[in-house]
Write a structure and sequence with these properties.
The chain has ten helices and 13 strands. The chain has helices spanning 23-30, 38-46, 113-127, 144-147, 171-175, 180-194, 211-224, 236-243, 292-306, 319-324, and strands at residues 8-12, 52-59, 62-72, 91-95, 106-108, 131-139, 153-164, 199-205, 248-255, 261-268, 275-281, 311-315, 328-338. Strands 1, 2, 3, 4, 5, 6, 7, 12 and 13 form a nine-stranded mixed beta sheet that branches. The protein has a four-stranded antiparallel beta sheet with strand order 8-9-10-11, with helices on both faces. Helix 2 packs antiparallel against helix 8 (236-243), helix 6 (180-194) crosses helix 9 (292-306) and helix 7 crosses helix 8 (236-243). The model has no long low-confidence stretch (mean pLDDT 92).
C-alpha cells in the first residue's frame, strides 16, 4: 500500500504471517528490545484479547518506522481472545509497546509528526472507516508538539522511573548517592544475602530456566494487582519464548535446600537503557524471603554498571519508593487523536 509520501505501509498479524527478512536487523538498528522478537510477538498475539498489528513504513529496502498497536473496538470481552479477522463496527488503534508500559510502541527514523500521520492514513486505508483514531501512550514532553492538533486530547499519565548510572564504577558508588537511612538499609540487605548460604542469587541468561517454575513465581505479583479491568496474565508460553531470547537477562533467587525459585526479575537488554520487568517473589508467608525486592536493585545496578549501560528503566509503579533508590521521574503523556 503506497502512502502519502510514497512510503510502503506493511501490516502484519504475527499470528498468521512469518517474520520479515529485515526484522532482526531492524530490531538491532532501532534498539527494539526482546519483547519485539517475532517469536515473542507471535505468542503474545495468540493470547491477546484484540488483534495485535505490526506496521512497518518502508521506502524500498529502507525502513522508516515501525508501530505496534492493538486494534480495539466492539465486540470485545475481557475473557475472550481475538478473533481471526479485523472486522469491527468502529474502533481505534491503541499504540503501545508489546511487553512494557515504560517505553513507546513505535520507532521512527525521524521526528514523530510526519511518520505518525503517514501511519494513521495508512491504517485508515487498511482497516477502513471503522478506524476512528489513535491512542498513543508513553509520549515524552518533547513529543507533545507533534500530537497537539484540533480535537486531540492530551493528558499526563504516571511518570516513568529511571536510574542513571553514568559515572558510577561500582554498586557502592550508587548507594553512596542515596539518603543515609536508605543507604544503611541496603547495605544490611546486601550483607544478609551475601552471607546466606541457603539462597543463591544469579544474574545471567534465561535460556536454562524452567518457564513453568518462572511463571508460577510471576503469578504472585500479578495476583496483588488483579481486578475486574486487569487483562489476563501472560501465559507460560509467553515467558518460554521471552526467556530464550539472547537479549534477556534474568535475576533469579533459588532456595538451595529445595531448588525452588524464591524470586525472579527479567531485564530487557538495550545498549543504553535496559528495562527491569516481571519482578516477583514468593511471599514470606508462603516460605519466601524478606526484602528481596530491595536486593535485586543492587544486582541490577551492578550489572548495568559492569556492562556499560547508561542506566535502568524501572517503570511507573511505586514512584516515591524508587526515588529513594536514586530514580528520577520522567513525565509521560497519552494522546487520543481522531483520524478524519
Amino acid at each position: 500500500m503506497t502512502g502519502l509520501a510514497g512510503l510502503t505501509i506493511e501490516v502484519f498479524d504475527p499470528r498468521y504471517e512469518a517474520e520479515p527478512d529485515y526484522w532482526r536487523p531492524l530490531r538491532a538498528e532501532a534498539g527494539l528490545r526482546a519483547d519485539w522478537s517475532w517469536d515473542v510477538l507471535t505468542v503474545q498475539a495468540w493470547h491477546a484479547r484484540t488483534p495485535l498489528l505490526i506496521t512497518v513504513l518502508r521506502d524500498g529496502p529502507t525502513v522508516h518506522g515501525v508501530v505496534h498497536a492493538s486494534w480495539v473496538g466492539p465486540p470485545m470481552r475481557r475473557t475472550a481472545y481475538a478473533g481471526p479477522g479485523r472486522r469491527k463496527l468502529f474502533g481505534l488503534l491503541h499504540v503501545r509497546a508489546p511487553g512494557t508500559g515504560s517505553v513507546p510502541g513505535w520507532w521512527f527514523r525521524g521526528p514523530l509528526r510526519e511518520p505518525m500521520r503517514e501511519y494513521a492514513a495508512g491504517m485508515r486505508r487498511e482497516l477502513g472507516l471503522a478506524c476512528r483514531g489513535l491512542l498513543l501512550r508513553q509520549l515524552a514532553e518533547d513529543d507533545l508538539p507533534a500530537v497537539r492538533r484540533k480535537l486531540a486530547l492530551v493528558r499526563p499519565t504516571a511518570a516513568n522511573s529511571v536510574i542513571n548510572v553514568d559515572g558510577f564504577r561500582s554498586r557502592e558508588d550508587w548507594t553512596a548517592t542515596l539518603a543515609r537511612k536508605r543507604r544503611q538499609d541496603l547495605r544490611k540487605i546486601f550483607k544478609l544475602y551475601d552471607e546466606d548460604p541457603s539462597i543463591e542469587a544469579h544474574v545471567g541468561s534465561g535460556a536454562g530456566i524452567d518457564p513453568v517454575a518462572f511463571t508460577s513465581v510471576v503469578r504472585h505479583n500479578e495476583h496483588k494487582y488483579r481486578g475486574r479491568l486487569t487483562p489476563p496474565p501472560e501465559p507460560t508460553g509467553y515467558f518460554a519464548a521471552l526467556l530464550r531470547q539472547p537479549d534477556v537477562v534474568v535475576i533469579t533467587y533459588t532456595d538451595r535446600d529445595t531448588g525452588n525459585l524464591a524470586g525472579v526479575l527479567t531485564i530487557l537488554d538495550h545498549p543504553q537503557w535496559p528495562i527491569a520487568r516481571n519482578w516477583s517473589a514468593v511471599p514470606v508467608e508462603f516460605g519466601g524471603r524478606p526484602k528481596l525486592y530491595f536486593h535485586w536493585y543492587g544486582l541490577a545496578v551492578r550489572w548495568a554498571i559492569e556492562h556499560g549501560r547508561r542506566g535502568l528503566v524501572l517503570g511507573r509503579g511505586k514512584p516515591e519508593l524508587k526515588q529513594t533508590l536514586g530514580a528520577i521521574l520522567e513525565p509521560q503523556y497519552a494522546a487520543l487523536l481522531p483520524i478524519r
